[in-house]
Amino acid sequence: MTGHPPAPPPEPASEDFPGRTAPHCTGLDELDAAVSRCCACPRLVAWREQVAGTRRAAFAAWEYWGRPVPGFGPADASLAVVGLAPAAHGGNRTGRMFTGDDSGAVLFAALHAVGLASQPMSTHRGDGLVLHGVRVTAPVHCAPPQNRPTPGERNTCRPWLARELSLLTGLRAVVVLGGFGWQALLPVLDAAGYRLPRPRPVFGHGAHVVLPGAGDRPELHLLGCYHPSRRNVFTRRLTFPMLVDVLGRAAGVSGLGPR
Q: Where is the Uracil-DNA glycosylase-like domain (predicted)?
């Protein structure tokens, strides 16, 4: 026999685990399982496990997820909602994106108001919540200290988001919650072949950019929305009607329409 033996599969703790694993995932279930095993960012691994071990008093009886949190929503979604990262005592506790924290309470209530969620609350996996035509995800899948991933952590995690969006073959629109998600998403779209305007579009609440189709993909609507963080909601920088308005417009251009 000639040639070299195949390279061994990457270890979950290796920095190149996302980059070598994500492109070979053939479906969202396979991708989600791979995401949940990732240990590529030592700082994030240490933090998520520390939080899961110490817990918050209000959740002392919980068995924390304490791993990377995969996206949530159906494979035929035509709309994606991209946030920042799981919350330490939200997704890092429950194991589902935007579930169990204040931001998620606002987001899922708004999705329900638009007709894209079966119920207005998301408290834990197995609570019966079903999303209609929308998938919720983030550019960083581990809870970061002080909700601030580093640029390096964002870049290491990027292949997961790139593959997730590529597997959503009917994707028509993306709502980006906050400037971090916006900046993380643009290189993903660029690499996927979408022609980004020059200069690159700037994030802002209500921003709406239409990207021409790439290959066999239709045009993509990119919409900006302030993140439904506790601070933004408390200061009324983002109100519930503002969030519902953006999600409603996204549903319209995604072909979902009112439900």
A: 70-247
